[in-house]
Amino acid sequence: MLELDGLTRRFGPVVALNELSFTVEPGQMFGFVGSNGAGKTTAMRIVMGVDEPDEGEVRWKGATLDRSLRSSFGYMPEERGLYPKTPADRQLTYLGRLHGMSRHEAAQAGERLLVRLGVDERRSEAVEKLSLGNQQRVQLAAALVHDPVLLVLDEPFSGLDPTGVDALSQILLERAAAGVPVVFSSHQLELVERLCDAVAIIHAGRLVASGGVAELRRRDRRPVLEVEVESEVDWSSGLAGVRVLSTREGRLLLELDDATDDQIVLDAARRAGAVRHFATVLPTLAELYREVISQDHVPASDLHGEAVP
Question: How distant, in Å, are the alpha carbons of 32, 41, 88, 97, 196 from that of 110?
């Protein structure tokens, strides 16, 4: 289990992290979400010992992290850390040996990963000659080659085509199924929602929501209906307690006050024309993200859910 406990980091007058705390359970796919400059990279660098907090600490299985513990982690930094003129296969073998693997073990592990990630045919080329997407795949293989006990990945899906996204997703899900905690940041919220058991949303260095993805989507929600009617309906006319939120794939999202009966809304829709679709829906992670960021004044403790083990 990985624990971030009260991490605070200042750069002069700028507070990059403000008492950031969350826990990642064994085998959990954990999404770390926030805008550019929110503090995600700073937090990951502290976990890996690249930076130090001004306050707080990071623990692994209850122990404060040191170099020995961190050597068993897999890390993908925001910026690539590969040797540009060295072929991918030689780099992976070298990095595996730095983590205590034999040359044979490291070479075999690197070869398997290059095949899984679709860059095996370019394994003997200098990394600088590869496309940016293929460089990203090699960087991911470098984080995975030594079979780490924890994965900390900063924007791992950036620059990958759909095939690469699918290949990496499958590898990460396999690692999580084997009990490895996987923490990754991403701006692709649909992907985070699809893959992750739990999520932490950070804004201006401060945690604004955390917990299980499904639980956060359900918690303290006013009813939201997804409606498609053959004819246009003026929902603001004579129908109290109904607010148009947005459209999703051509269907209207309507938020109801707690006292508003959805059957009254259905009756209004029927009077307007044929009802093609009518269902209660949960917000997407992207919609939840926009909501909690707009509620920046709300204390983080009011938005937390229970983490999903």
Answer: 27, 26, 9, 11, 26
Strand ranges (E), 94-165: 150-154
pLDDT of residue 236: 63
Pairwise CA distance, residues 19 & 205, whole Å: 8
- 178, HSE (Cβ side, Cα atoms, 13 Å): 13
Distance in angstroms (rounded) separating the CA atoms of residues 140 and 132: 12
Taking the alpha carbons at both ends of the chain, their separation in whole angstroms is: 10
Maximum Cα interatomic distance, the chain, rounded to a whole number of Å:
75
pLDDT tens-digit map of 186-230: 999 999 999 999 999 999 999 998 998 888 877 656 678 888 887
Domains, the chain, ordered by start = 2-211 (3.40.50.300), 222-281 (3.30.70)
Q: How would you list the strands of the sheet with 206-212, edge to edge?
A: 73-76, 150-154, 182-185, 29-33, 198-203, 206-212
Q: Over the range 204-231, which residues count as b (16 or more CB within 10 Å of their CB) and which as e?
A: bbbbbbbbbbeebbeeeeebbbbbbbee
Please check the confidence at residue 27 and state whether its pLDDT lies above 60.
yes
Q: Give the per-residue pLDDT at 279.
A: 87
